[in-house]
Amino acid sequence: MKQMTTSNKGKQLIKEFETLSLTAYLCPAKVPTIGYGHTKGVKMGQRITLAQAEDALVEDIAPIERLLNGLGINFRQEQFDALVSWVFNLGAAKFTSSTLYKKVVAKAADEEITDQMVRWVYCGKEVLAGLVNRRVTEANYFLGYNRYKVEKNVIVKV
After folding, report:
1. Out of 16, 18, 123, 138, which one is annotated catalytic?
2. Is residue 3 one of the residues assigned to a domain?
3. Active-site residue, 18 included
4. Domain containing 151 — which CATH number?
5. Which of 18, 106, 124, 143 is a Cys-bridge partner for 37, taking CB atoms 3.0 to 4.6 Å apart?
């Protein structure tokens, strides 16, 4: 089985929602973050260059690619990219303990998989508009067509 990597479109998908910051900030989950959502070893007040942000993104994506490739599933590129974006945002631990993971491993219908993807819109008990928009974009990208849309910060099927 061919090992997949995240396409440039997939990286752009991540960048669309992981706003670039060359100075460390606290994300909504109160974790010091820099670059495109990079958190490993980040200290408040830290500064980086654009090149370092790009390198950190590639570094952060690599273990996700290994995880997904290790599942032994022949993903379409869009499916792979959408899952990389989802796992990048939520983390491998949440992915591997989720119903989404069980659906992916079971090779469930694409719509069953994306119905699970779009459930993850909370930070604590609060629905975040950015997560609502991200999940709709990821799910539609995974499917290759628009099944979901946002109405008043709620995800609905088209």
Report:
1. 18
2. no
3. yes
4. 1.10.530.40
5. 18
Q: Which one, of 89, 71, 66, lies nearest residue 14 by Cα?
A: 89
- For residue 148, the surrounding DSSP H or E stretch is strand 148-151
pLDDT per position as a tens digit, 55-81? 999 999 999 999 999 999 999 999 999
pLDDT digit string, tens, across residues 23-67? 999 988 899 999 999 999 999 999 999 999 999 999 999 999 999
Number of domains within the chain: 1
Q: Which of 45, 56, 44 is nearest to 20 (CA)?
A: 56
8-state DSSP, 18: S
Catalytic-labelled residue, pool 16, 27, 111, 151 = 27
**Residue 69 belongs to domain spanning:** 8-157
Has residue 43 been placed in a domain?
yes
Contact criterion met (CB below 8 Å) for 60 and 41: no
**Element of type H or E holding 136:** helix 129-143
Does residue 123 have an active-site annotation? no
